From TrEMBL:
This is CHK kinase-like domain-containing protein. Transmembrane segments: none annotated. Residues 124-321 form the CHK kinase-like domain. It comes from Dendroctonus ponderosae (Mountain pine beetle). It holds the Pfam family EcKL. InterPro entries: CHK_kinase-like, EcKL, Kinase-like_dom_sf.
Amino acid sequence: MSDPRDTFDPLIRKAFQSEGLKSYYLKFRGGNEKGEGYIGDIVFVDVFATKLDGAETVYSLVLKTGGKNKSMRQIVRLGFEREIYIYSKVIPAFWQLQEEYGMVKFASIPRCYLTILTDSQETLLLQDIKSVGFQLYDRKTVMNLDHIKLVLKVLGQWHALSFGLQTKHRLEFSRLTSKWKCPAEEIFVKSHVGKWMNLAQKHLLSVLEESGESELLLKYKQKTDNHMATSIVKDILYMEKEHVVITHGDCWNNNLMFKYENTSEASPTDLCILDFQISTLSSPVIDLSYFIYAVSSTDQLEHFDSLLQIYHQSLSHYLRQMDCDPQNIFSFTDLLDHWSKYSAYGAMINPLIVCDNLVDKDNAASYANINEVYESIIESVDKKHSELFSSRLIAVARHFTKDV
């Protein structure tokens, strides 16, 4: 087996060439574990460095690479291309726009030290934000309102940057997003994940029938016109042409890390968004419906109206800082209209996401073997967490169909 230092040394030298490092040594801390949902390979490493002026410092890093799984090669490549593009092109364009208007840079992302994209290599070297106190929310529990509100505020800021760039520098935005492929379609529609999504939708229908929710089942079938989840997701991805943003695309527990000021984890003070591999150009509701439905149950959805208000207030505040009029660009009425048209996106993905949230690590699938085990994943979750699984699916289905 090759020495991992042989891989890291050239990356460290390239990433930190402006930092004035005299010497350093590496301490590896493992990689991604089963059930964490990463596409590609992850390695965690600390760089203990001495600078030319004698100062000592530690860089805690995450190395993301495309890996060698041949069955997922096309998806891995597309996902890494998108994330590298977000870090190397989109975020700098957003920051330049903010600098133009005297704004503080959008900072709810890990620092990116290095990206490499060649015919045979996909690499990102990122800050390990765990080292500065960020942590994941327990994916098996619904999020409390303080966490949900913070995520919606940050999504409002992220989406506002797209609207702002379109308004102030339309040609640049068009250049950034022209000829984009859609990773979400490749993953959620064309890959093994799409099969899992359709099976999870089928399980939802069984839950509604077995729970005596015959009226809700009828409403759900009417709302979806009996279409498969993958068909609905594919259609929605391309429907909106006017009010579009660069979405995050995969906004659920595994890609959100929170920071707290004290030992209480009830109310976060900061948020960091990870993994832009499914980012695409579409309605803001792609992110909103995905996130809200992924982390909510009945209690959270009772606050739905106020949650949308919080998102739109954040979006509007950011737009005004760029001398943009929210009412003309994306009003609250526009948001409600988009929710009516496109929230099926999050509703269709929800059974899969809830299943993935509740599955135990021992029964979880990696993207490498998902084609073999997705049926057993649903069975294992239903067996061990039947009541919780069913209640969350029913809550989202009820909210999704409330206007039927």
